[in-house]
Write a structure and sequence with these properties.
By secondary structure, this protein is of the alpha/beta class. Helices cover 48% and strands 12% of the residues. The protein folds into 2 domains: 2-198, NAD(P)-binding Rossmann-like Domain (Rossmann fold, 3-Layer(aba) Sandwich), CATH 3.40.50.720; 236-349, Rossmann fold (3-Layer(aba) Sandwich), CATH 3.40.50.720. Bound molecules: nicotinamide-adenine-dinucleotide.
Amino acid sequence: MKITMIGTGYVGLVTGACLAEMGNQVICLDIDREKIDSLQAGKLPFYEPGLKELVKRNTQANRLHFTGQYSEAIPGCDICFLALPTPSNQDESCDLSYVEKAAKQLAEIMDNYLVVVNKSTVPVGTSERVKQTIQETLDARGVQIPFDIVSNPEFLREGSAIEDCMQPDRILLGVNQSKAAKIMQELYAPFLERILIMDIPSAELAKYAANAMLAARLSLINDLASLCEKLGANIDAVRDALAHDDRIGPQYLNPGIGFGGSCLPKDMKALRAMAKTHNHPTDFFDSILEINQRQRENFFEKIRSHFDRTKGKTLALWGLSFKPGTDDLREAPSLYFIQKCLVQGISLRL
Ligand SMILES: NC(=O)c1ccc[n+]([C@@H]2O[C@H](COP(=O)([O-])OP(=O)(O)OC[C@H]3O[C@@H](n4cnc5c(N)ncnc54)[C@H](O)[C@@H]3O)[C@@H](O)[C@H]2O)c1
Protein backbone atom coordinates (compact mmCIF):
# COMPACT_ATOMS: atom_id res chain seq x y z
CA MET A 1 0.00 0.00 0.00
CA LYS A 2 1.05 3.62 -0.48
CA ILE A 3 1.27 5.34 2.87
CA THR A 4 1.93 8.92 3.86
CA MET A 5 2.99 9.72 7.41
CA ILE A 6 2.39 13.35 8.29
CA GLY A 7 4.75 14.17 11.17
CA THR A 8 8.12 12.44 11.33
CA GLY A 9 8.76 12.50 15.07
CA TYR A 10 9.01 9.58 17.50
CA VAL A 11 5.69 8.07 16.48
CA GLY A 12 5.74 8.99 12.78
CA LEU A 13 9.29 7.88 12.04
CA VAL A 14 9.08 4.60 13.97
CA THR A 15 5.65 3.71 12.56
CA GLY A 16 6.65 4.75 9.04
CA ALA A 17 9.80 2.63 9.16
CA CYS A 18 7.91 -0.38 10.56
CA LEU A 19 5.18 -0.12 7.90
CA ALA A 20 7.92 0.03 5.23
CA GLU A 21 9.52 -3.05 6.79
CA MET A 22 6.17 -4.84 6.32
CA GLY A 23 6.45 -4.17 2.58
CA ASN A 24 4.51 -0.91 2.14
CA GLN A 25 5.66 2.16 0.21
CA VAL A 26 5.98 4.87 2.87
CA ILE A 27 6.70 8.55 2.55
CA CYS A 28 7.32 10.49 5.76
CA LEU A 29 6.49 14.18 5.64
CA ASP A 30 7.54 16.90 8.07
CA ILE A 31 7.53 20.70 8.09
CA ASP A 32 10.84 20.67 9.98
CA ARG A 33 13.22 21.07 7.04
CA GLU A 34 16.29 20.33 9.15
CA LYS A 35 14.80 17.01 10.25
CA ILE A 36 14.01 15.99 6.68
CA ASP A 37 17.46 17.06 5.43
CA SER A 38 19.20 14.99 8.08
CA LEU A 39 16.95 11.96 7.44
CA GLN A 40 17.66 12.23 3.73
CA ALA A 41 21.36 12.27 4.63
CA GLY A 42 20.88 9.09 6.70
CA LYS A 43 21.00 10.77 10.14
CA LEU A 44 18.29 10.19 12.73
CA PRO A 45 16.91 13.17 14.68
CA PHE A 46 16.72 11.15 17.95
CA TYR A 47 17.93 7.90 19.47
CA GLU A 48 15.73 4.80 19.47
CA PRO A 49 17.26 1.31 19.71
CA GLY A 50 17.35 -0.44 16.31
CA LEU A 51 15.80 2.47 14.41
CA LYS A 52 18.94 3.52 12.53
CA GLU A 53 19.34 0.08 10.95
CA LEU A 54 15.60 -0.20 10.20
CA VAL A 55 15.52 3.20 8.47
CA LYS A 56 18.71 2.45 6.53
CA ARG A 57 17.46 -0.96 5.34
CA ASN A 58 14.11 0.38 4.14
CA THR A 59 15.54 3.53 2.57
CA GLN A 60 18.01 1.41 0.61
CA ALA A 61 15.18 -0.93 -0.43
CA ASN A 62 13.40 2.13 -1.82
CA ARG A 63 10.35 1.59 0.43
CA LEU A 64 10.93 4.54 2.79
CA HIS A 65 11.23 8.17 1.65
CA PHE A 66 11.30 11.60 3.31
CA THR A 67 9.96 14.91 2.11
CA GLY A 68 9.05 18.40 3.28
CA GLN A 69 6.45 18.88 0.54
CA TYR A 70 2.76 18.03 0.86
CA SER A 71 2.55 18.10 -2.94
CA GLU A 72 5.04 15.23 -3.09
CA ALA A 73 3.57 13.18 -0.25
CA ILE A 74 -0.22 13.28 -0.66
CA PRO A 75 -1.26 12.65 -4.29
CA GLY A 76 -1.88 8.98 -5.02
CA CYS A 77 -1.53 7.69 -1.46
CA ASP A 78 -4.00 5.13 -0.04
CA ILE A 79 -3.67 5.89 3.66
CA CYS A 80 -2.56 9.11 5.27
CA PHE A 81 -1.53 8.94 8.94
CA LEU A 82 -1.46 11.99 11.22
CA ALA A 83 1.35 11.65 13.79
CA LEU A 84 1.45 15.25 14.95
CA PRO A 85 2.21 16.94 18.27
CA THR A 86 -0.73 17.45 20.65
CA PRO A 87 0.86 19.47 23.48
CA SER A 88 -0.98 21.11 26.39
CA ASN A 89 -2.64 24.51 26.03
CA GLN A 90 -2.24 27.06 28.86
CA ASP A 91 -5.48 25.76 30.40
CA GLU A 92 -4.14 22.13 30.21
CA SER A 93 -6.53 21.17 27.41
CA CYS A 94 -5.09 19.54 24.30
CA ASP A 95 -3.70 21.86 21.61
CA LEU A 96 -5.15 20.58 18.35
CA SER A 97 -3.70 23.30 16.13
CA TYR A 98 -1.03 21.02 14.58
CA VAL A 99 -3.59 18.35 13.74
CA GLU A 100 -6.06 20.90 12.33
CA LYS A 101 -3.40 22.59 10.23
CA ALA A 102 -2.12 19.32 8.77
CA ALA A 103 -5.71 18.20 7.98
CA LYS A 104 -6.26 21.42 6.07
CA GLN A 105 -2.95 21.14 4.24
CA LEU A 106 -3.63 17.58 3.13
CA ALA A 107 -7.16 18.47 1.98
CA GLU A 108 -5.72 21.24 -0.17
CA ILE A 109 -3.72 18.66 -2.12
CA MET A 110 -5.56 15.30 -1.99
CA ASP A 111 -6.84 14.04 -5.34
CA ASN A 112 -8.20 10.54 -4.68
CA TYR A 113 -10.14 8.54 -2.07
CA LEU A 114 -8.13 8.59 1.15
CA VAL A 115 -8.28 6.94 4.54
CA VAL A 116 -7.10 9.57 7.01
CA VAL A 117 -5.86 7.85 10.15
CA ASN A 118 -5.22 9.76 13.34
CA LYS A 119 -2.33 8.38 15.41
CA SER A 120 -1.89 11.42 17.64
CA THR A 121 -3.37 11.29 21.15
CA VAL A 122 -6.45 13.50 20.89
CA PRO A 123 -9.60 14.23 22.91
CA VAL A 124 -12.91 12.62 22.07
CA GLY A 125 -14.50 14.43 19.14
CA THR A 126 -11.25 15.31 17.34
CA SER A 127 -11.81 12.88 14.46
CA GLU A 128 -15.15 14.58 13.84
CA ARG A 129 -13.36 17.98 13.80
CA VAL A 130 -10.72 16.67 11.38
CA LYS A 131 -13.48 15.33 9.14
CA GLN A 132 -15.17 18.76 9.11
CA THR A 133 -11.89 20.56 8.39
CA ILE A 134 -11.14 18.29 5.43
CA GLN A 135 -14.69 18.56 4.10
CA GLU A 136 -14.73 22.38 4.40
CA THR A 137 -11.38 22.60 2.59
CA LEU A 138 -12.58 20.31 -0.20
CA ASP A 139 -15.80 22.38 -0.49
CA ALA A 140 -13.73 25.57 -0.75
CA ARG A 141 -11.76 23.91 -3.57
CA GLY A 142 -15.07 23.03 -5.23
CA VAL A 143 -14.15 19.35 -5.54
CA GLN A 144 -15.87 16.17 -4.41
CA ILE A 145 -13.33 13.64 -3.17
CA PRO A 146 -14.50 10.89 -0.81
CA PHE A 147 -12.49 10.13 2.33
CA ASP A 148 -12.91 8.29 5.63
CA ILE A 149 -11.54 9.00 9.08
CA VAL A 150 -10.07 6.34 11.36
CA SER A 151 -8.82 6.69 14.93
CA ASN A 152 -5.79 4.45 15.48
CA PRO A 153 -4.14 5.60 18.74
CA GLU A 154 -0.52 4.69 19.27
CA PHE A 155 0.78 2.69 22.25
CA LEU A 156 4.50 2.43 21.47
CA ARG A 157 6.95 3.18 24.27
CA GLU A 158 10.14 5.09 23.59
CA GLY A 159 13.08 2.75 24.20
CA SER A 160 11.18 -0.30 22.89
CA ALA A 161 9.25 1.42 20.12
CA ILE A 162 10.16 -0.93 17.26
CA GLU A 163 9.26 -4.04 19.23
CA ASP A 164 5.99 -2.40 20.33
CA CYS A 165 5.20 -1.54 16.72
CA MET A 166 6.18 -4.89 15.21
CA GLN A 167 4.61 -6.98 18.00
CA PRO A 168 1.72 -4.91 19.34
CA ASP A 169 -0.44 -6.17 22.24
CA ARG A 170 -3.43 -4.82 20.35
CA ILE A 171 -4.29 -2.42 17.55
CA LEU A 172 -7.27 -0.14 18.12
CA LEU A 173 -9.32 0.91 15.14
CA GLY A 174 -12.03 3.45 15.78
CA VAL A 175 -13.98 3.43 12.55
CA ASN A 176 -17.53 3.94 11.31
CA GLN A 177 -17.16 2.95 7.63
CA SER A 178 -16.72 -0.65 6.53
CA LYS A 179 -14.61 0.35 3.50
CA ALA A 180 -12.04 2.07 5.73
CA ALA A 181 -12.16 -0.82 8.23
CA LYS A 182 -11.35 -3.26 5.42
CA ILE A 183 -8.40 -1.19 4.19
CA MET A 184 -7.00 -0.89 7.72
CA GLN A 185 -7.44 -4.62 8.35
CA GLU A 186 -5.52 -5.27 5.13
CA LEU A 187 -2.72 -2.97 6.28
CA TYR A 188 -2.54 -4.64 9.67
CA ALA A 189 -3.13 -8.16 8.27
CA PRO A 190 -0.08 -9.61 10.11
CA PHE A 191 -1.81 -8.71 13.42
CA LEU A 192 -5.37 -9.56 12.45
CA GLU A 193 -6.21 -11.40 15.67
CA ARG A 194 -4.99 -8.43 17.74
CA ILE A 195 -7.20 -5.82 16.07
CA LEU A 196 -9.97 -4.34 18.21
CA ILE A 197 -12.58 -2.52 16.15
CA MET A 198 -14.77 -0.01 17.94
CA ASP A 199 -16.55 3.32 17.51
CA ILE A 200 -14.34 6.40 17.09
CA PRO A 201 -15.02 8.12 20.47
CA SER A 202 -14.19 4.89 22.35
CA ALA A 203 -10.87 4.52 20.48
CA GLU A 204 -9.99 8.15 21.20
CA LEU A 205 -10.77 7.77 24.91
CA ALA A 206 -9.08 4.35 25.20
CA LYS A 207 -5.65 5.92 24.67
CA TYR A 208 -6.17 8.35 27.56
CA ALA A 209 -7.63 5.55 29.66
CA ALA A 210 -4.49 3.43 29.15
CA ASN A 211 -2.21 6.32 30.11
CA ALA A 212 -4.37 7.13 33.15
CA MET A 213 -4.08 3.50 34.27
CA LEU A 214 -0.28 3.60 33.94
CA ALA A 215 0.06 7.01 35.61
CA ALA A 216 -2.20 5.84 38.47
CA ARG A 217 0.01 2.80 39.07
CA LEU A 218 3.11 4.99 39.17
CA SER A 219 1.59 7.53 41.53
CA LEU A 220 0.31 4.73 43.78
CA ILE A 221 3.73 3.03 44.04
CA ASN A 222 5.42 6.42 44.55
CA ASP A 223 3.01 7.35 47.32
CA LEU A 224 3.51 3.93 48.93
CA ALA A 225 7.29 4.52 48.76
CA SER A 226 6.92 7.75 50.75
CA LEU A 227 4.66 6.00 53.26
CA CYS A 228 7.19 3.14 53.59
CA GLU A 229 9.87 5.63 54.64
CA LYS A 230 7.63 6.93 57.40
CA LEU A 231 6.59 3.46 58.57
CA GLY A 232 10.02 1.81 58.37
CA ALA A 233 8.91 -0.61 55.64
CA ASN A 234 10.93 -1.40 52.51
CA ILE A 235 9.27 -0.34 49.25
CA ASP A 236 11.33 -2.88 47.23
CA ALA A 237 9.87 -5.70 49.32
CA VAL A 238 6.36 -4.26 49.09
CA ARG A 239 6.80 -3.87 45.33
CA ASP A 240 7.93 -7.49 45.00
CA ALA A 241 4.85 -8.62 46.89
CA LEU A 242 2.64 -6.67 44.50
CA ALA A 243 4.51 -7.65 41.32
CA HIS A 244 4.15 -11.36 42.10
CA ASP A 245 0.39 -11.05 42.39
CA ASP A 246 -0.96 -12.18 39.00
CA ARG A 247 -3.82 -9.72 39.31
CA ILE A 248 -1.33 -6.83 39.57
CA GLY A 249 1.89 -7.79 37.72
CA PRO A 250 5.27 -6.02 37.62
CA GLN A 251 4.81 -3.40 34.89
CA TYR A 252 4.82 0.32 35.75
CA LEU A 253 5.48 -0.48 39.38
CA ASN A 254 8.96 0.95 39.99
CA PRO A 255 9.05 3.78 42.51
CA GLY A 256 11.02 6.82 41.36
CA ILE A 257 11.07 10.60 41.29
CA GLY A 258 7.84 10.90 39.35
CA PHE A 259 6.80 10.16 35.79
CA GLY A 260 7.72 12.48 32.93
CA GLY A 261 8.01 12.30 29.18
CA SER A 262 5.93 13.76 26.39
CA CYS A 263 2.84 11.63 27.09
CA LEU A 264 1.76 10.78 30.65
CA PRO A 265 1.85 14.32 32.15
CA LYS A 266 0.19 16.05 29.20
CA ASP A 267 -2.35 13.26 28.66
CA MET A 268 -3.34 13.28 32.34
CA LYS A 269 -3.87 17.02 32.09
CA ALA A 270 -5.88 16.68 28.88
CA LEU A 271 -8.04 13.98 30.46
CA ARG A 272 -8.64 16.22 33.49
CA ALA A 273 -9.56 19.08 31.13
CA MET A 274 -11.98 16.78 29.27
CA ALA A 275 -13.57 15.75 32.58
CA LYS A 276 -13.89 19.41 33.67
CA THR A 277 -15.55 20.38 30.39
CA HIS A 278 -18.17 17.69 30.98
CA ASN A 279 -18.69 18.53 34.67
CA HIS A 280 -17.16 15.23 35.70
CA PRO A 281 -15.30 15.15 39.06
CA THR A 282 -11.52 15.46 38.59
CA ASP A 283 -10.41 14.29 42.07
CA PHE A 284 -8.92 11.03 40.80
CA PHE A 285 -6.81 12.74 38.12
CA ASP A 286 -5.91 15.57 40.55
CA SER A 287 -4.42 13.04 43.00
CA ILE A 288 -2.31 11.31 40.33
CA LEU A 289 -0.81 14.62 39.23
CA GLU A 290 -0.37 16.00 42.76
CA ILE A 291 1.49 12.89 43.95
CA ASN A 292 3.70 13.08 40.86
CA GLN A 293 4.65 16.69 41.58
CA ARG A 294 5.18 15.95 45.31
CA GLN A 295 7.54 13.11 44.42
CA ARG A 296 9.86 15.49 42.56
CA GLU A 297 9.72 18.06 45.35
CA ASN A 298 10.41 15.44 48.06
CA PHE A 299 13.48 14.20 46.18
CA PHE A 300 14.95 17.67 45.89
CA GLU A 301 14.16 18.37 49.55
CA LYS A 302 16.06 15.20 50.56
CA ILE A 303 19.15 16.35 48.69
CA ARG A 304 18.86 19.90 50.04
CA SER A 305 18.45 18.83 53.66
CA HIS A 306 21.40 16.42 53.38
CA PHE A 307 23.81 19.38 53.34
CA ASP A 308 24.15 22.12 55.99
CA ARG A 309 24.54 24.59 53.15
CA THR A 310 23.80 23.85 49.50
CA LYS A 311 25.22 27.08 48.01
CA GLY A 312 28.57 26.44 46.36
CA LYS A 313 28.14 22.65 46.30
CA THR A 314 28.65 20.69 43.06
CA LEU A 315 26.43 17.73 42.23
CA ALA A 316 26.69 15.24 39.38
CA LEU A 317 23.47 14.23 37.66
CA TRP A 318 23.46 10.84 35.98
CA GLY A 319 20.57 10.06 33.65
CA LEU A 320 18.83 13.08 32.21
CA SER A 321 16.21 11.62 29.87
CA PHE A 322 12.76 10.87 31.26
CA LYS A 323 13.49 7.13 31.31
CA PRO A 324 16.22 4.68 30.22
CA GLY A 325 16.66 3.71 26.54
CA THR A 326 15.81 7.12 25.08
CA ASP A 327 17.41 10.57 24.71
CA ASP A 328 14.02 12.29 25.06
CA LEU A 329 14.15 15.10 27.63
CA ARG A 330 10.55 16.26 27.26
CA GLU A 331 9.07 16.78 30.77
CA ALA A 332 11.95 14.80 32.29
CA PRO A 333 12.00 15.07 36.12
CA SER A 334 15.72 15.95 35.78
CA LEU A 335 14.73 19.32 34.33
CA TYR A 336 12.81 20.20 37.50
CA PHE A 337 15.78 19.08 39.60
CA ILE A 338 18.28 21.09 37.52
CA GLN A 339 16.21 24.25 37.82
CA LYS A 340 15.81 23.87 41.61
CA CYS A 341 19.57 23.27 42.03
CA LEU A 342 20.50 26.33 40.01
CA VAL A 343 18.15 28.53 42.05
CA GLN A 344 19.84 27.24 45.25
CA GLY A 345 23.32 28.09 43.89
CA ILE A 346 24.30 24.43 43.38
CA SER A 347 26.65 23.70 40.48
CA LEU A 348 25.88 20.70 38.33
CA ARG A 349 27.82 18.24 36.24
CA LEU A 350 25.53 16.55 33.74
N1 LIG B 1 6.35 9.77 21.80
C1 LIG B 1 5.66 8.75 22.25
O1 LIG B 1 6.19 7.87 22.93
C2 LIG B 1 4.20 8.62 21.93
C3 LIG B 1 3.54 7.39 22.17
C4 LIG B 1 2.19 7.28 21.87
C5 LIG B 1 1.49 8.38 21.37
N2 LIG B 1 2.14 9.55 21.16
C6 LIG B 1 1.37 10.67 20.60
O2 LIG B 1 1.70 10.77 19.22
C7 LIG B 1 1.70 12.15 18.79
C8 LIG B 1 3.06 12.51 18.21
O3 LIG B 1 4.03 12.38 19.23
P1 LIG B 1 5.59 12.42 18.90
O4 LIG B 1 6.30 12.13 20.18
O5 LIG B 1 5.87 11.61 17.71
O6 LIG B 1 5.76 13.98 18.54
P2 LIG B 1 7.04 14.69 17.89
O7 LIG B 1 7.01 16.09 18.35
O8 LIG B 1 8.25 13.85 18.12
O9 LIG B 1 6.74 14.63 16.31
C9 LIG B 1 5.76 15.39 15.67
C10 LIG B 1 6.31 15.89 14.33
O10 LIG B 1 5.26 16.54 13.61
C11 LIG B 1 5.85 17.59 12.85
N3 LIG B 1 4.82 18.53 12.40
C12 LIG B 1 4.17 19.50 13.10
N4 LIG B 1 3.26 20.11 12.33
C13 LIG B 1 3.32 19.53 11.10
C14 LIG B 1 2.61 19.71 9.88
N5 LIG B 1 1.65 20.63 9.75
N6 LIG B 1 2.92 18.92 8.83
C15 LIG B 1 3.90 17.99 8.92
N7 LIG B 1 4.60 17.75 10.06
C16 LIG B 1 4.32 18.51 11.13
C17 LIG B 1 6.87 18.17 13.81
O11 LIG B 1 7.87 18.93 13.12
C18 LIG B 1 7.44 16.90 14.46
O12 LIG B 1 8.59 16.42 13.78
C19 LIG B 1 1.31 12.95 20.04
O13 LIG B 1 -0.08 13.14 20.03
C20 LIG B 1 1.70 12.03 21.19
O14 LIG B 1 0.95 12.28 22.35
C21 LIG B 1 3.47 9.70 21.42
